[in-house]
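Thread: Newbie trying to understand structure tokens

Hi all, I'm a second-year student working on a class project, and my supervisor (Dr. K.) asked me to get a predicted structure for one chain before our next meeting. I've only ever worked with sequences, so writing a 3D structure as a token string is new to me. If someone could post the tokens and maybe explain what I'm looking at, I'd be very grateful. Here's the chain:
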Amino acid sequence: MNKIKGGASCLLLAGVLVTGCSSTSEPTVSIEDLKRAASQAASPTPSPSASVSPGPVLQVGQRSQFADIETDEYGENPRAVTTFGVTVKEATYIDAADIGSGEPAENGQFVRLTLAITNVGKANGDFTSYGAIKWEDEQTAAQDATTLHLLDGPELDTEYKPGQSVTGSIVLDIARKGGTLTYWDSANSDAPAFSITLPTAGSGGEA
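---
Reply by user tm_fold:
Sure, no problem. This is what the structure looks like when written as tokens:
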């Protein structure tokens, strides 16, 4: 019978490595660990989508731009189709007599907002204010501010071809003077397209 010399030698028998050949041992992997790893590989955790940044915050007399967003036929996959320029021309607090209404403001205060909207992009785009403008302040959470009161002059809510522009006014119904108006594109509920800080008293007009 042959003898194997040297205490540090390893005995390989029937393809099985006898323990004790090394000072370190291989980590033990259980059946549950293998099942868990396989499940994670089959159903990876989705990466978080990029957050949508809110649009510009404007005061009377200021101008900026915002994207016109549309979705596919299923209301998914929002994308910018064109770019609008917006200028806040005026924000004036008015009463029912100024708009020929016999009813006072339901929420408390009427404001006439005059905007200049221009399609500065390369594709047709829609601007729709009705149902898309909210008002809030430190006391009151966001509320729909749009009304059906019409004023003389051009209508802002229409389709704009590249280069087309309209300056017009809409009547909003808010709780009190001041606060912030936000315009929400109907195809994007993650962040407002732009916001307007209202004057706290009197009226504001473009210089």
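A couple of things are worth pointing out once you decode it. The mean pLDDT is 81. The helical segments are 31-42. Feel free to ask follow-ups in this thread.
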